[in-house]
Amino acid sequence: MYAQMVQSEATEEDPAKLGEFQAKIDADIKIEPKDWMPQGYRKTLIRQIGQHAHSEIVGQLPEANWITRAPTLERKAILLAKVQDEAGHGLYLYCAAETLGVSRDEITEMLLDGRMKYSSIFNYPTLTWADVGAVGWLVDGAAIMNQVPLQRTSYGPYSRAMIRICKEESFHQRQGYDAIRKMAEGTAEQRRMAQDALNRFWYPSLMMFGPSDKDSVHSAQSMAWKIKMNTNDELRQKFVDQTVPQAEYLGLTIPDPQLKWNEDRGHYDFSEPDWAEFFDVIKGNGPCNVDRLAARNKAWDDGQWVRDGLLAHAKKKRAGKVAAE
Amino acid sequence: MTSDEAFKQFLLRMGDNTLILGHRVSEWCGHAPVLEEDIALANTALDLIGQTQMWLALAGEVDGGKSADDLAYLRDAWDFRNVLLVEVPNGDFGRTIMRQFLFDAWHSIMLGRLIKSSDDRVAAIAAKASKEVAYHLERSSDTVVGLGDGTDESHARMQAALDYLWPYVGEMFACDAVDEQMAAAAIAPDPADLRDEYDALVGKVLTEATLTIPDNRFAHKGGRDGRMHTEHLGHLLTQMQWLQRAYPGASW
Q: Which fold has domain B3-246?
């Protein structure tokens, strides 16, 4: 789940039009870019898709951190392909956001100056090779929980982007699990890396779903509009239920002494993450917030001359063509 | 030199070029000037690493059953056989894309010849790689032209990149005893024979890019025979080989 705490916008429009709009959504008719939509729907979607796109882009950094140090050529190739896919996801999502009337440059600048957010998870460091596996297994695993239902979201371009993205994400998750499995089955040092990665990434992964439903005030409108398909707590529970047996299979211990199967509920009981830490990370105080944003700003600033150069050349070429005609 | 040894040296030259350049290009991941470039650079790096796997696997086979990973991760700098061009640091995006273009042009011509190699295994790798490299060359040429003939700043940066990199071009066409044996066995062309085609191709693109080729044929050497790499290669290997060196024998 790469969109957290996306604030729903209130909307004040003609009740008749709003009624028609809601009826379309209730009938599962997709909303397309040229259709009428409430301002609140448009703004909320821009925020949500933008946050998702930015997460893909910033999310390249913790994984790219290991490309040059990948331990085998095959692992290096897999990781390169994965990070490339993520940049591709960012591209689809920026295109989806553009259909709502915000350009990629505008939305990028909002990321760079801190007006828009990206998922809190990417503010945690990747410290060992096992972290690359853990990111695939847990972070992509958590993302898929949210993205699979979003394939049915009401906004057409977003839904179609999600369908493409989900195919690749589930592949990434399997590859991540395979990488950490190899370490869990490896030497004592590799096992230690795998357990340490799980220890560090477990709670931040749970935080990816956002605060508990009782504290999440913006869900109702987004759920009615079908741009949020499940509550945060539903998805978090689903993630825990899916992940616990996978950890057991690896022989790794989830760092939660309260974790226990609850026969009556048919779900695992588990400890909440430290929400104070979550809000700190959201505010910019995570271990890597400053560095991640600095890296994106540096790439953007250093690349200005490249973008300007290519644009100037394209203009010259167009002018040349016109002159020749 | 036995012909097996010469064959191995030839394969290492091919595989080390793609390995080291792939590493350098992969350093851009997440940091490129525009999203499309990030994707294209990662894709190029991925192709180069894939080609490395093929070349080094064959080199390892000739070398008595070593794996491609053994060769990539467990040799020290003096056993690497890449040209110096591919190990120089990325510099700005202009230098990276100019280096890519200067290499792609050689690579595409070389692979075109290797498709007709008398060794079927070499011909098969070249056939697969040449499709990828045709695309690399198309992209790097377009970008060199776009930036060379862009703004004053982009032009100046591209000219500076060309001036810096040009002395590393000549090594790709150097010929030694290994090359003589490969040419005699019709496994690979004499590198010197590729130069005219290269000059024509590179000249055409750089002219369109409004850039001036330095009037100097001086060539740094020492990479493809391992006699003297740059200071940069050791740092690159330190990073690339760290896990394999720190945890010997572990399986990843």
A: Ferritin (1.20.1260)
